[in-house]
Amino acid sequence: MAGVRLFSRINIATEAVRGTPIAPTRQLYGDYEGSFKEDLGLDFHEGENRGQRTRIQHATQTKEMVAVSFKSTNGVPYDVLPIFFSALNGTATAVGAGADKTWTQDPVMAATNSPKSFTLDVGDDVQNWRLQYVMWQTIKLAGSAGGLTSIEVSGFAQKAVKTAAAAVAANQAIKIPGSLWTLKFAGTAAGLAGAAVQTNLMRDWEATINTGLTAQDYADGTLQFSQHQESLDIGGSGVMTVDHTAGAITEFYDKYHSNPPTLSFLRFRATGPALGGSAYQAGFDLPVFYSDTDPLGGEQDGVNLMKVPFVIANDVTSAKSIQSVVTVCSLTALP
């Protein structure tokens, strides 16, 4: 019998020692296509002449690398975001004495961030694979009015081993509707707190964050990578769709056209239902340059829309790029 999609799983747990797998303890709910893909680096020795018209006679495995992805177009819960944002700051912990726990996972820009590694169980009713030393390289969030917030994460794992799946309880984590996201912009990072929420403006948005993590392989007696490094830039890019208003022209078009281009600061925030003494919340602040504008980039119900791409920059004043990565949720600790 073939595996059944209804029985597919992606379950997760935080490793105490990177590369030492443990039994997953939390279920993730997402789209299961392409959850992982192994690259064994097979060399087929095509250059060997054997006096035959077909040269390939044997093969050699040269490595073992696993690409990992998690994607959910059916919504992402507040409680899941700290798991992925731990790639930006692995030392952050949940703060708060009540039911509502605050996670602040801003990356340090001039030192290491000690990102967490994870074990994943991936499979269905036919076969399960346990992936070890899983880390996240890109995190993409997207939201639009009338839908659920989606997430798409990619990364790497050291190894995938066929084994039995751990039994993990279901959860009913609260997901983030796209309409709950708000936008603020200001001329400085400090100005975002007092800036007004932009109503009747943003239709949809997406942002991709690069964590800077890489897998490092060595000639050290194994086919798997030996360690990770925080060796690439932390940054990213995104795009917003907004109404073609006078305020949008001033903020987006004029700052794009200024010479030199003007650095701006964006705050994305989503506030959900009540939780403990506060409410569910997710969001982050970004210093950005607008990399293009399309003032008449579309329309909806006869209303002209603008497409506004942006790139994440470094703020000299705060010496940060991605900042105020805050999630208020019920997650007390990483699974």
Keywords:
335 residues, 17-stranded antiparallel β-sheet, two-stranded antiparallel ribbon, globular
Describe the structure.
The chain has helices spanning 81-85, 246-257, and strands at residues 9-14, 26-28, 36-39, 65-72, 101-104, 118-123, 128-144, 150-157, 159-162, 181-186, 202-210, 213-216, 227-230, 235-243, 264-275, 278-290, 294-300, 303-312, 323-329. The protein has 335 residues and is mostly beta strands. It has one domain. The longest helix is centred in the last third of the chain and has 12 residues, at 246-257. It is globular. The protein starts with 8 loop residues before the first strand and ends in a 6-residue tail after the last strand.
Could you outline the blueprint of secondary structure elements for this entry?
Blueprint: E1 9-14, E2 26-28, E3 36-39, E4 65-72, H1 81-85, E5 101-104, E6 118-123, E7 128-144, E8 150-157, E9 159-162, E10 181-186, E11 202-210, E12 213-216, E13 227-230, E14 235-243, H2 246-257, E15 264-275, E16 278-290, E17 294-300, E18 303-312, E19 323-329
Antiparallel strand pairs: 1-2, 1-6, 3-4, 4-8, 5-19, 6-7, 7-8, 7-9, 7-11, 10-15, 11-14, 12-13, 14-18, 15-16, 16-18, 16-19, 17-18
